[in-house]
Amino acid sequence: QVSREETDQLCAENTGSVARYSPSFTAWEYFPRDLEERRWPAAVLAMYEDLGLVHRFGIERSTLARFVLMVRKGYRDPPYHNFSHAYSVAHFAYLMLKNLQLVESRCLDDLESLSLLTACLCHDLDHRGTTNSFQVASRSVLASLYSSEGSVMEQHHFAQSVCILNTDGCNILSELPPKDYTQCLDMVRGMILATDLSRHLSIMTELEAMATGGYRSCEPRHRRLLHSLLMTAADLSDQTKRWLSSKKAAKLVYREFFSQGDMEKQMGNDPSEMMDRERAFIPKLQIQFLDDIALPVYSLMGSLFPACEEVYAQTKANRRCWQRMADICSRRNATNVQSIDVFD
Ligand SMILES: Cc1nc2ccc(C(=O)N[C@]34C[C@H]5C[C@H](C[C@H](C5)C3)C4)cc2n2c(-c3ccccc3Cl)nnc12
Ligand SMILES: [Mg+2]
Ligand SMILES: [Zn+2]
User: Fold this and answer.
1) Strand, coil or helix: what is 182?
2) pLDDT at 275
3) How far is the CA of 34 from the centre of ligand 1 (A)?
4) Cβ neighbours of residue 261 under 8 Å, at least 6 residues apart?
5) What three-state secondary structure class fits 198?
6) Of 58, 53, 49, 51, residue with least CA distance to 10
7) Ligand 3: distance of its center to the CA of 110 in Å?
8) What is the per-residue pLDDT for 222?
9) Which ligand is nearest to the CA of 236?
10) How many Å apart are CA 178 and CA 216, to the nearest integer?
11) Ligand 1, closest atom to CA 257?
12) Contact 9, 65 (CB under 8 A)
């Protein structure tokens, strides 16, 4: 549970305009983790308010405060998949809604906007810093619960979201008419499941077709494809920021991967190269990740929304930095370098 004074204090925060947090809070290049950690819950409240969601859906401020604090409590503290990631992903969703005018341009309606921001905040709830395949390999409780439908972690993240909404005084959707409530929960579920990169890869062809032919908001399939694309764009958004921030974020991802690899070795299994601190060469793996997954996402975003092209440009700039790093390391013939040291 969340203490009463914590809720009251957050509720009393005059979250006012988002400019209170930074004059560049609504800029693509703004790195949300630059804001001091204790102000993140207030910044989340301000985003809900600034998007007009509190007013539009009759959300009680104290309920929203309790909800955000419960969500923060619902995250563990692995190197990367902690509340700072959830807050950053929610912030990027806010940037897309704001800078691409997704509601104003009628690409999304208010309910989808509420669902997107809420799904981003909740999308990695109770993450343990290990992957879906690790759940199955380690025969975790989550695997026994969810492995038949796939996306083991993402189904758990959604289940945790529903638990929080069903906690007294935390249901920010309570004022929605029954039809909207059900629809919103369905969209949040689809959005959280969409953050499973395997699912994202399986719809890439459809996403490309949509980007080529143009987004048709009248088609339900297009709306769901857009939800998925927006979720992945938000989930990978650390890679769209300035070089030092995105490099630092990548370092935390590999800290999680390598500790999973260590556990897999202890279990007598062979980790993939990406998880194996002895074999991984991070610059090369990062170039692969950017080329195969991240860059196509922001390229699609750029072709659907011209205002998003600078995001794609920054991600390409980061790829060039990884390329330079790869060249320097391989020139120094540092193949045996402890791959993590490359960062320091
Ligand atoms: C910097 C960075 N690098 C990343 C490198 C690799 C992968 C990754 O999961 N690769 C794949 C590669 C194939 C096909 C599928 C399933 C598996 C086999 C594993 C995906 C993720 C990476 N990632 C994420 C991230 C985003 C969403 C969920 C989890 C994570 Cl960790 N966020 N930031 C980063
Ligand atoms: Mg996830
Ligand atoms: Zn995530």
Assistant:
1) helix
2) 98
3) 24
4) 271, 272, 275, 276, 277
5) helix
6) 49
7) 23
8) 98
9) 1
10) 27
11) 31
12) no
Q: Which of 305, 176, 198, 197 is nearest to 187 (CA)?
A: 176
Average confidence (pLDDT) per 10 residues, the chain, 344 residues:
93 86 98 98 97 98 98 98 99 98 98 99 98 97 97 98 98 98 98 98 98 97 98 99 98 98 98 98 98 98 98 98 94 55 52
Closest atom of ligand 1 relative to the 81 alpha carbon: 31
Per-residue pLDDT, 334 = 53
| CA-angle at 239, arms to 233 and 244, nearest 5° | 155
What is residue 13's predicted lDDT score, i.e. its pLDDT?
86
CB 247 within 8 A of CB 343: yes
d(CA 93, CA 71): 17
Q: Is 222 a catalytic residue?
A: no
What does the alpha-carbon distance between residue 256 and residue 295 come to, in Å, rounded to a whole number?
A: 22
List pocket residues of ligand 1, CB cut-off 6 Å.
195, 197-198, 201, 235-236, 239, 250, 253, 289
